[in-house]
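Q: Entry one of two.
A:
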Amino acid sequence: MNKKKLPKAIRPGAARTRSAASEAAVSVDPGSDAKGATMTADDTMATDTLAADRREMATKTVERFAVYAGAAGIIPIPLVDVATVGGVQIQMLRRLSQIYEVPFSENLGKSLLISTAGTAIPATSAVGTVSLLKAVPLLGMVAGAVAMPALSAGATYAIGMAFLEHFASGGTLLDFHAPDYREFIKKKRNAWRERRKGVGEPAAAENHSE
């Protein structure tokens, strides 16, 4: 008796071949690359948005603490004003560390603030020097009271922006090197002074590459 051949469409071999072809088609779905590219673009956009939000928040934080430091500079007692300004700056640094999720150490933070101020701010206009003017009767007190708030605010703003740039670039307290920001801090101090005069700070000054 001759065996009847099965239709080609349902032969076991044909079924296996068709199944393998289907799996191969799925594995090389032409839309997969496009989907991956879309996800990458979305991830990049989300990262950029987060970075922009952090910078905006951090910038506002620095500006706010600069104003606080200026208010602290009004304190009429020599060196007490310096200590108060230092306290404002360490709190600013703590807040910036939180925004950028950087480990914070108060002792290390104080050390870095002192070294940064010493490196980037001229001794002739140092906060401590101006503070001591308040000990001089009459003219010294007046001069110190006028100069100290502006100097404290400007120095705090410039130092805060330096740490902002450092954290935004992926740095931490451990690898912050004050001399690297000498010129940057100088420009930021000048920018703050101009802003107080109503001129405003150029947007380009926000970049560390200046």
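Q: Entry two of two.
A:
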Amino acid sequence: MEIKYIDIHSHFNLSPLKEKKEEVIAQMIEKGVATIVIGVDYETSKEAIQLAERYDFIWAGVGLHPTDNDKEIFDFKKYAELAKHQKVVCIGECGLDYFRNQREETKQKQKETFQKQVELAVSLKKPLMIHARPSKGSMDAYEDALDILVHYPALKGTPPQQGWETLRANFHFFVGNIEISKRALDMGFTMSFDGPITFSRDYDEVIKFLPIDSIMCETDAPFAAPAPHRGKTCEPWMVEEVYKKISEIKEMDFEEARLTINKNVKRFFNIN
């Protein structure tokens, strides 16, 4: 299959996509769309790998989502075994989510689990897929995540400390402001965008600000379908609309934007 678009974050391991994955994959093949299936806990991480083993245009991410901390204790050794699989291209999604729960004990538990996954990513030389969802009207989850990540040398900036490899990280479903964008860029990190940019102007300023080399596209399927598919179950092949909107906002030739974004993905995740 000729790959035209790469959706870097989808959930074939969640309903309703998992029940109709063969139908959705057929659409992906028709439209030339590849994807990374992202785990949110141990079982869905295993399912992501199983799916990736079946198709050469699907890869996997393994990790524990911050809001699943109350359901599962992160087991470093178990996740490390999963993450060593050749089709696993990132650790996550992992991170901090303060949107519905701002209790200090919850935040602390999320930080501890996130830091373990950062250390797993560094130890295996695989990038992080970060979920950061701040409380309403703030950037607190981004600020705390960056405060944790600053202690690990990134690809750009701080020289590696003895014993540490460099860190790569992407903020998925990015809703940060320009100040957060600057901090992330200074640390050598990237950001990815989803369907909402196709029907909301809230993202335009940040997308215009970010260099195209720091941007990737995703769907977060089955969530947040882009226009003109709003109200439907989101599927990976819909990522084409996100590519289109990025090129439009940045006033770039579409083909130039598409090729650059795909180059970013291949470089970041070390995939062919």
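A: Comment on entry two: Residues 157-164 have pLDDT under 50 and may be disordered. Strands lie at 5-10, 33-38, 58-62, 88-97, 128-133, 169-172, 190-193, 215-217.
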